Amino acid sequence: MTSATDRATAELMDSIAFDAQGLVPAVAQQHDTGEVLMLAWMSREAVAETLATGRVCYWSRSRGRLWRKGETSGQVQRLVELLVDCDGDTLLLRVDQSGVACHTGRRSCFFRAVRGGRLETVAEPLVPPGQLYGA
Amino acid sequence: MTSATDRATAELMDSIAFDAQGLVPAVAQQHDTGEVLMLAWMSREAVAETLATGRVCYWSRSRGRLWRKGETSGQVQRLVELLVDCDGDTLLLRVDQSGVACHTGRRSCFFRAVRGGRLETVAEPLVPPGQLYGA
């Protein structure tokens, strides 16, 4: 027997346009400051787990498996709100990021900006990467 | 003979990891409010044109051609800053959006949020879509 919750989840999944690989890009934004932290990809299972647990879970394309953000580094993302765009092919995750989002130890993965036609580093690590990954 | 500008552009392009289709996802964020407006895709040519003109140009996957944001609707995006993420496979465009970003007449394309397991519309159009597209 299908519960109302199951039906709601099925309807929600139907409104998301997963690509040919079964993935959808998800932009993570710190909910209170508005800072864009990163972009990663989610599968249906990752979306369902994230909504069920309130802790953000992506699909790692490089590892080919679910990636519970912070599982190694401890830098988890708590979901505040999940939004879907007009075409259903991008998600926006408003999150509360513990510590830093980037594997380089920076708050955001977007730490290089074009200045005078060249890429310049515009943010420094807040945490040594070795400390994040127990090196 | 290659100018310094051409070399800088070539170096910048080399630091962007375009996918197998020659595209990279680009998140557009209103530079002063932090609002995430939309996600679209850029080709090398779109990145080069955007940097050269200061007006955001995407690659339309549905139309298979360059898409100068606002060319039909008048709702252009002026580039304030272009950032590249740690892996080089996502761009963040800090922009100044004229009017609305979404073809539905809403400021942002992310106007549907999950509430109680269902998608709810959380922002209304600021402009009638017919007015944007001359209907």
Question: How would you summarize this macromolecular structure in one to three sentences?
Answer:
The structure is a homodimer of 135-residue chains. Helix content of chain A is 19%, strand content 33%.
What proportion of the residues of chain A form beta strands (DSSP E)?
Answer: 25-35%
How would a crystallographer describe the biggest sheet of chain A? 4 strands, mixed
Number of helical regions of chain A: 3
The first-to-last residue Cα distance of chain A is 49 Å
> What is the oligomer described by this structure?
homodimer
* Widest sheet, order of strands of chain A: 2-1-6-5
Helix and strand string of chain A, N-terminal first? HEEHEEEEEEH
Coarse shape of chain A? globular
Mean residue pLDDT of chain A: 94
Record the SSE blueprint.
Two copies of one chain form a homodimer.
Chain A lengths: L3 H11 L9 E7 L5 E7 L1 H10 L3 E4 L4 E4 L8 E8 L6 E7 L14 E4 L2 E4 L7 H4 L3
Parallel strand pairs in A: 1-6
Antiparallel strand pairs in A: 1-2, 3-4, 5-6, 7-8
What does this structure look like?
The structure is a homodimer of 135-residue chains. Chain A has 135 residues and is α+β, with helices and mostly antiparallel strands. Chain A contains 3 helices and 8 strands. In chain A, the strands form 3 sheets. In chain A, strands 2-1-6-5 form a 4-stranded mixed beta sheet, covered by helices on one side. Chain A has a two-stranded antiparallel ribbon with strand order 3-4. The first copy, chain A, has a two-stranded antiparallel ribbon with strand order 7-8. In chain A, strand 3 (57-60) and strand 4 (65-68) form a beta hairpin. The first copy, chain A, is globular. The mean pLDDT of chain A is 94. At the A-B interface, helix 1, strand 1, strand 2, strand 5 and strand 7 of A face helix 1, strand 1, strand 2, strand 5 and strand 7 of B. Strand 7 (112-115) of chain A pairs antiparallel with strand 5 of chain B.
